[in-house]
Amino acid sequence: MKGMMMHRPLKIADILEFAAEVHGEAEVISARHEGDVHRAGLRAIRDRVCRLAHALRARGVGEGERIATLAFNGHRHLECYYAISGIGAVCHTINPRLPADQMRYIIDHAGDTHIFVDAPLVPLLEPLLPTLARPLTVVVMTDRAHMPDTPLDGVICYEELLDGEPTRFDWPDYPEETAAGLCYTSGTTGAPKGALYSHRSTVLHALFVSSALPTVLQPGRKVLPVVPLFHVNAWGLPYVAPLAGASLVFPGAKLDGKSLFDLMDAEGVYSAWGVPTVWLGLLAEIAARGRLPEGFGHVLVGGSAAPRSMIAAFEEMGVTVFHAWGMTEMSPIGTVGALPPSVRAGPPEARLQKQSIQGRRVFGVEFKINGENGERLPHDGVSQGELHVRGNAVISGYHANPEATEAAIDAEGWFGTGDIATIDPDGYLSITDRAKDLIKSGGEWISSLDVENLAISHPKVRNCACIAVADDKWGERPLLVVVPEGDDAPDSDEILDLLATKFARWQLPDEVVTVDALPLTATGKVSKLTLRKQFAAQRAAEGGRTP
Ligand code: AMP
User: Fold this and answer.
1) String of DSSP letters for 470-482
2) Can the peptide bond before residue 225 be classed as cis, meaning omega within 30 degrees of 0?
3) Residue 43 CB: number of other CB atoms within 10 A?
4) Quick one: DSSP state of residue 425?
5) How far is the C-alpha of 312 from the C-alpha of 68, rounded, in Å?
6) Strands ordered across the beta sheet of 137-140
7) pTM of this structure
8) Which residues on neighbouring strands pair with residue 137, listed in sequence order?
9) C-alpha span between 28 and 267 (Å, rounded)
10) Residue bearing the CA closest to ligand 1, atom 6
11) Residue 417 CA: which ligand 1 atom is closest?
């Protein structure tokens, strides 16, 4: 027997309309590249979103059309999120830190027709646009007075685009499975892969996450996403915060400790979200000033493992730490790291132990761990295997990429995360290693295999391996281990110059080390595990940190 309830499609625009009506006192506060701090209530933001939606329609943007953004965190970027998805088009967020050839690839692969760009990022587009497969209309997200000088043709000014458009929009109905957002993530090798979010997955993700954070996001509270809007929807905050009635404080491009401290202090930010690297800067600023930013009480650390010392430092100052884990392919939240009252009130050592691991799942995400032959392993806190996930906000495949889809989804239909983990009987997830050959530096990916493929093309390199080494600031940094061809070993600069032709500066290995031979596994593959252990032991002997 079927239930007899209405079925209304879940739509992202409904979050905004609800929030504007019910949480109209909540604000969106943005530190802008123009140099000011812009403030608008959610109703004013809704009005601007409606004007943008009309303007997009007037330009002929249709359902399913991909519209790119290349921007930091600010109210105009948020307006793009809601207006683009609201008319049934797809908001494709692009990471400005990507090397140019990857940016070109994803714009072409997505088939973007327009790009909304922050004025300071326009120079990134100037050399790129003539090399794209299709023409791309550029909208610069500023007013006429701040439009940059650019040789690009037909550039549109964002504020002029909105001028004169009506402040109400009759959002169309479309099936809830309609695509709404697109975010590419690095593959272990070759081209990035696109996670294509739907209205349904996005709304459900917002509900799942807000249900896990009842003590954090509330009306009257302010939350600051340091995590960029171009990194998996800033972990869902553009949707979760308005839904819960919390205000959003956007930091723009300035993410150093001093800028963050000043903004948080001036606005009374309660909760801030980001990767471990950014919190080092904030902690240093807190130490220098001898006080916390006014009102600061909660930090959500994710994207990479949160160091125990960082968690302890925040907690000792009275800032509650949630250690979250997730993935682009999961919208992204898998765990938020909220602790039960007994653990929070218990001995600090036991609490720290639980906070240092990745925590328990949010509703809507299921976990299993697979052994080497795809068999399920017990959740006993000891058995280690590849973590697999399933849920309504997890991808069912990659956008227009059947090979990557086939490799990612297992025989039971679960998504393989590439993380090696244990899960204990109480459901606590602990990530112990990474099966995917990638390095995560300051929250951004570097493909070891891509580095190796280019390095090995150097005539003086016989073999090489790129591994992650632990780094206090960035979490991990790449180290390239090279076996020379013959007696004439290449010097570091020769290799780094070659790599610089393809990789961004921050992706280049910090060190190139020459060895006689690489350690091999039983099957004859390079054993990166052995190499990582060797270099970790060497670093420890030199007094450095071990992974
Ligand atoms: P991304 O898709 O760029 O967000 O990266 C997701 C990956 O980052 C995960 O599969 C993990 O390898 C890593 N990651 C994210 N959060 C954590 C965490 N809290 N601890 C350890 N690794 C993490």
Assistant:
1) EETTTEEEEEEEE
2) no
3) 16
4) T
5) 40
6) 156-157, 137-140, 114-117, 66-70, 90-93, 179-185, 193-198
7) 0.92
8) 114
9) 11
10) 327
11) 10
Judge contact between 541 and 534, C-beta under 8 A. no
pLDDT tens-place string over residues 447-463: 998 999 899 999 999 99
- For 286-312, the DSSP string reads HHHHTSPPTT--EEEE-SSPPPHHHHH
Angle (deg, nearest 10), helices 237-244 and 12-22: 30
Which of 187-191, 293-297, 345-349 comes out lowest in average pLDDT? 187-191
Cα atoms in the 13 Å half-sphere on the side-chain side of 342: 0
Q: How many angstroms is it from 303 CA to the middle of ligand 1?
A: 4
- What are the angstrom distances between the C-alpha of 66 and each of 109, 155, 322, 335, 415? 10, 18, 34, 30, 25
Dump pLDDT digits (tens) for 228-248: 999 999 999 999 999 999 999
Per-residue 3-state assignment (H helix, E strand, C coil) for 372-386 = CCCCEECCCCCCCEE
Which one-letter DSSP state was computed for residue 531? H
Rounded to 5, what percent of the chain is helix, strand, coil?
35, 25, 40
Exposure on the CB side of residue 350, measured as CA atoms within 13 A: 9
Residues in contact with ligand 1 (CB, 6 Å cut-off): 185, 232, 302-305, 323-325, 327-328, 332, 358, 417-419, 431, 434, 440
The pair of three-digit structure tokens given for residue 137, joined into one six-digit string = 């209309």
Q: Which residue carries 């458009």 as its tokens?
A: 165
Ligand 1 atom nearest to CA at 436: 12
Which residues are the active-site residues? Answer: 185, 329, 440, 445
Closest CA to 181 of 56, 77, 84: 84
N residues, the chain: 547
Q: How far is the CA of 295 from the centre of ligand 1 (A)?
A: 29
Q: What does 45-63 look like in DSSP terms, one character per residue?
A: HHHHHHHHHHHHHHTT--T
**Mean pLDDT score across all residues of the chain:** 95
Place of tokens 């606005």: 267
**Which is the closest atom of ligand 1 to the Cα of 305?**
20
Whole-number pLDDT of residue 281: 95
Q: How confident is the model at residue 546 (pLDDT cuts 50, 70, 90)?
A: very low
Is 60 exceeded by the pLDDT of residue 216?
yes
